[in-house]
Amino acid sequence: MKLRHALTTLSALTLVATGVSTVALSEPASAHGAMVYPMTRTYACYLDGLAGGGGDLNPTNPACRDAIAISGKQALWDWFGVLISNAGGRHREIIPDGELCGAGTTKYAGFNQARTDWPTTELQPGARITFRYNAWAPHPGTWYQYITRDGWDPSQPLTWDDLEPVPFDVVTDPPIGSGSSGAEYYWEATLPNKSGRHIIYSIWQRSDSPEAFYNCSDVYFGDLDNEEPGGPTGSPTVTPTDGDGDASCQATVTITNSWPGGYQGTVTVTNTGSAALSPWTVQWVMPSGATVASGWNATVTQSGNTVSATAPSWNQTLAAGASVSIGFTANGSADTPPSSITLNGAACS
């Protein structure tokens, strides 16, 4: 599986602490949470915003930037709060067509935008995956996962009729464990046999309250790099080169968080050559037995011990002197980080 979303350079615990202080000022204590795999729009844009640095939220993804222009930055600080307090199962009745991703609220209206450049998670049709849902304030309830119909047009506002009538996955009171975003609900599910670009629309209806939460996770079934130009995304087909004789680079590896059996890290590469690289590919070697579980800010795959991070459609060119940072989570020990980093085949110092 490949994941395309925004980069975070801070630990998950730090992110959670930051969000708590903000939410306490703006919303009453309640259940809170959001899908973190596949990433919902608010969480992906929150991470992208943090990667901008300076202690503020400055996304680089154009859809995320436009969402802030519409809804303001508080919507990202409160990425886990897309909710209706008195829903009581009346989702279709109280959320208008075209406003599903923002749950009909003004605060999250920017995330209703019908466009194809949202951070996107690449999935394989029919695969078994582990859904992960942040448990900011745990409560019992049931999660319903819907998928858009075949032929759905992502350039049009999402409506209820765009969703398959029956959820492909339903789970009640899943277990809670530790994850990259803090405490997380997790459960296994089988993905539907879909192809191309879709939205997974998740509804969490609490059983101890009428409150409900809503999430839009942008996904692509198949190989997003092979999506034809002029298709739903309008993204060009990317064919990275194996090497570039003019490429030169510097690289650093930062471990931003760790837990028993896994960790989160960032590989940052600077193009020290005299020319821009388009498209670019960063590769590195994992220690024996270690595997990358997810990656962002690039299309991340692993073959054997070698990990390849290829340029996303919204950031194809790495200018001379510019840097790119690829975030990832891995199964393995943080004591032995990735090594042998290359940029378009050139070894980085």
Describe the model:
- Helix content is 12%, strand content 35%.
- The radius of gyration is 20 Å and the shape is globular.
One letter per element, helices H and strands E, the order comes to EHEHHHEHEEEEEEEEEEEEEEEEE
* Total discrete domains: 2
Averaging pLDDT over every residue, what do you get? 82
What is the fold named in CATH at topology level of the largest domain?
Answer: Coagulation Factor XIII, Chain A, domain 1
Helicity range of the residues?
10-25%
The CATH superfamily of the largest domain appears as chitin-binding protein cbp21
- Classified by CATH, the class of the largest domain is Mainly Beta
Number of helices: 5
Total beta strands:
20
Cα radius of gyration in angstroms: 20 Å
Main sheet specs: 7 strands, mixed
Poorly predicted parts: 1-30, 229-245
Structural class: mainly beta
* Share of β-strand residues: 25-35%
